[in-house]
Each structure stands twice: as structure tokens, then as C-alpha cells.
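pinned: reference chain
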Amino acid sequence: MVYDAHIESNERRDVGGKMGRISIYLPDDLESRLARYKDALNLSSIAQDAFERAINVEELKGAGKMHEAKLERLRADRDADAEARQAEGFAAGKEWALDAKFREVQYVAELADDMYSSEPEVLKHQLVKQIAGDGYSVRDAQALFVNPFGRAKPSINEIYGFIEGAREVFDEVE
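pinned: its C-alpha cells
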């Protein structure tokens, strides 16, 4: 049954301007129940509130999709940055290994075997220790990283790449 809810109302509810009119289709049993209370209920206000809530939910869902899309864009950017840093580290590791002593290259290459299971700070410490020796200072470590990376604190992806680059040179020598 079509129930003319008569959405048009003299109560403008802060809308300002003319209000539209719609017809609402209701199941017969709901329409007969509604007919009993039609004089006591402001059907226009009830319908407006229901539409407002439904629209708000849909807008939030859309905002959630936009939010998720933006998160995906950031994740892709993060992954691309990680790949670029690892490639830079790889090139730096190869360059370093070609100028280093064989024993230093061997020590660094050995780190590649389980580097992904090591904590990042431990791996950085092990790398510096392999190159600079047991008695290295913080200054030695910073100097070691400034040369290939241009800064004292390279990212873990640059460290991974550096070790992989050194490993590749080592494997070529072997």
C-alpha cells in the first residue's frame, strides 16, 4: 500500500526554503498500525530523522572507504620507500665491499644468513662490529654509516640492502 507520509510540513526544522514531498511504501500491517497513531505522531519529523540517520551512516561508510583508501596509499608509499632505501643500501654495500678487505666482506656477508630474524638495532650493532672491530666507538659507527648513506642513522632497509650488496660481492669472489 502507498502511504502518503506527507513529508511536506509547516515545520521547516531549520532547513530554510521549500521542502520536498515523497511517498513512502509500507507493508499493509505497518500501515494499519501507523494509521491508529497518525494524529499523535509527526510522520514528517519521524521520516526526516530516519532519513538523516540513514544518510549519516552511508556518509560515514563512504568516509571509511576513503579513509581505507588513503591508508592503502600510505602503505604503498611506505613499501615503495622501503624498496628504494633497500636498493640504495644494496648499491652502497656493493661499492663498499669492492673497496674493503676480503675478511671484512666475509664477516658482513655472514650477517645475511639470519639478518631478517635479528632485531634492527642488534643487526646495526653487528654490522658495525664486523667492519670496525670489537673496540669500535659510537663515532666509528656514525662515520661508517655517513660514508655510504650520507647520514649517521640509516634505515633498517638500507642496512638490509647494504648486507645483501656485500653478500653478492662475496658470492662473486667465492
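why pinned: The two ends are 86 Å apart (CA to CA). Residues 79-173 form one domain.
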